[in-house]
Amino acid sequence: MTAHTHQTAPTQFVEASGIRFAYRRFGKAGGVPLVFNQHFTGTMEHWDPAVTDGFAKDREVILFNNAGVSSSSGEVPTSIEEMAQHAVAFTDALGIKKRDALGFSMGGFVAQQFTIDRPDLVRKLILVGTGPRSGEGMASLTPEAHEIFGAKYEPADELWLRVFFTPSKQSQAAGRKYLERQRARKENRDPVANDKVAPAQISALQQVAALQKWGAPAKDPYAYLKKITQPTLVVNGSNDVIVYTVNSFILQQNLPNAQLILYPDGNHGAQYQYPELFVEHVTQFLKG
Amino acid sequence: MTAHTHQTAPTQFVEASGIRFAYRRFGKAGGVPLVFNQHFTGTMEHWDPAVTDGFAKDREVILFNNAGVSSSSGEVPTSIEEMAQHAVAFTDALGIKKRDALGFSMGGFVAQQFTIDRPDLVRKLILVGTGPRSGEGMASLTPEAHEIFGAKYEPADELWLRVFFTPSKQSQAAGRKYLERQRARKENRDPVANDKVAPAQISALQQVAALQKWGAPAKDPYAYLKKITQPTLVVNGSNDVIVYTVNSFILQQNLPNAQLILYPDGNHGAQYQYPELFVEHVTQFLKG
User: Fold this and answer.
1) How far apart are CA A24 and CA A40, in angstroms?
2) Which residues from B are below 8 Å from A265, CB to CB?
3) Mutate which: A238, A274, A284, vs B, most B CBs within 10 A
4) HSE value, Cβ hemisphere, 13 Å, CA-based, for B56
5) Which end of chain B is more exposed for a tag (fewer CB within 10 A), N or C?
6) Residue B3: predicted pLDDT
7) ipTM above 0.90, yes or no
8) H-assigned helices in chain A
9) By C-alpha distance, which of A106, A105, A101, A58 is closest to A78?
10) Half-sphere exposure of residue B95, counting CA atoms within 13 Å on the CB side?
11) pLDDT confidence band for A191 (50 / 70 / 90)
């Protein structure tokens, strides 16, 4: 057990494939670590300490920025396949042979991809607020995502109140608590988008290109999911407007060994609306 | 706390609306009881002791046969609405003001109906292997249900291996364990179908009539679900061939406050395939 938490874990760096990856690791070491794969435009700072520290009681948690994101060097690639290769290069550099992988949204696409490419590396898979290749409404950003990501927020991080939470009073209140938790780390925060506006915009455009290739229509698009034989937990909110909730159902129906949990009155970040329940559900799943 | 369990709880009787209802109650008394509403052709004997005794550690469990079923007198009505009225008459007769209601399959239709008719009586709702009015494939028995219920089994209760479990080796093995648990009560078992063949067949036909009215196509069929404001947990297997799994997703998407859990490699009785996990999930939901 390290003394570190989400708030205090230092940002470390490791080199692989010519990229200097920024990462943090904390929690109870010695078992299979839980590696987090982040969403579109997110950095290590966007994980919820209530979730990461919740898991860190029982297991080691590893956060990182993939290539070209925030404090990691390199360029954001324009395909999920390349992002998955980078994610594997990063954990290979740390010497991690086996992990439980949690992928949120775009991070869920990346986690699906590296599970297919390198099944030996993954014990169990947790797919949150995500969807399959060619899922419903996934050929481009949804109209709701266009509107939400296109609007201005003051302060800027209130964007996440709309991306992750529903308009309901309860959900918005939960969202404000999430923002407080997420802002609580004061030292050595990851650079936020506004610190270097142009590169962040380019990074976002590259990521959108990757998302659109993943979501593009294809023949028999869900067949690839049969290759993911790891026990998988699929989690989402009831009303995800960024990656429509039906995609979680599609994942569950097409994966050979998947459990699905949908939370009520929830949008894309329902796991931050019900962090204790989410940690309980995932912990049950990981121990099972 | 009574000393009784699923196996030892005596069958008791209470009169209401001219019906003599058979019931059993056991577990930790004093709080909100959990009342179980049974599926098509099921009696109190078809509940899984691993589930009922699992709940009985923390709360009082009440099982009963609705009108015309097995050890209860009266006639099986040909509508879910009348079954719901009977279910309410039964708990009124026991003086129960508030309950958590678990409805499995047809019992889930009944539980939806009495929650709408008498919302004051229900604190939380658990809907297992069930669906909404006019759900997908619900206008009649599914082709799979026709085939499965129409076949012969020796011993007869092996029917449930096909109704509740998938063809996979793991699921069938879990099914055989369920059958062992379900057969374990030796004293004062409910009369099984074979004891009085004609009435059981008539009872089944009446129940089918009720199911078909519930499932018949209708305009804007899911609007009624907005009236169920109680916290609801919807649970099913990934591959329910009796009430198709998509109906659980439809319930969750249309109920104002519902969580959904789908279990992998599961058919209509997935809660008996994963009884410990199911009890944990429901217990979390009831305490929340």
Assistant:
1) 19
2) 257
3) A238
4) 23
5) N
6) 78
7) yes
8) 49-56, 80-93, 106-117, 143-150, 159-164, 169-183, 197-215, 246-254, 270-273, 275-287
9) A106
10) 0
11) confident
How far off is chain B from A254, nearest CA to CA, in Å? 9
pLDDT at site A144: 97
Rounded to an integer, what distance in angstroms lies between the CA atom of residue B103 and that of residue B118? Answer: 15
Q: Does A249 touch chain B (CB under 8 A)?
A: yes
Phi and psi at residue B20, to the nearest 5°: -100, 105
| A262, A281, A283, best to mutate vs chain B, most B CBs in 10 Å | A262
Cβ(B60)–Cβ(B31) below 8 Å: yes
Q: State pTM to two decimals.
A: 0.95
CA separation for the pair A265, B229 (Å, rounded): 12
Q: What is the pLDDT of residues B203-231, one digit of tens each?
A: 888 889 999 999 999 999 999 999 999 99
> Whose structure tokens read 């009342």?
B35
Instruction: Give the chain B residue nearest A276 (alpha carbons).
Output: B288
Rounded to whole angstroms, the Cα distance separating B94 from B12 reads: 11
The amino acid sitting at A130 is: T
Distance CA B12, CA A197 (A): 73
Q: Which residue of A has its CA nearest to B246?
A: A249
CA angle B237, B242, B244 (to 5 degrees): 60
Q: What is the DSSP letter of A70?
A: T
Banded pLDDT at B193 (limits 50, 70, 90) = low
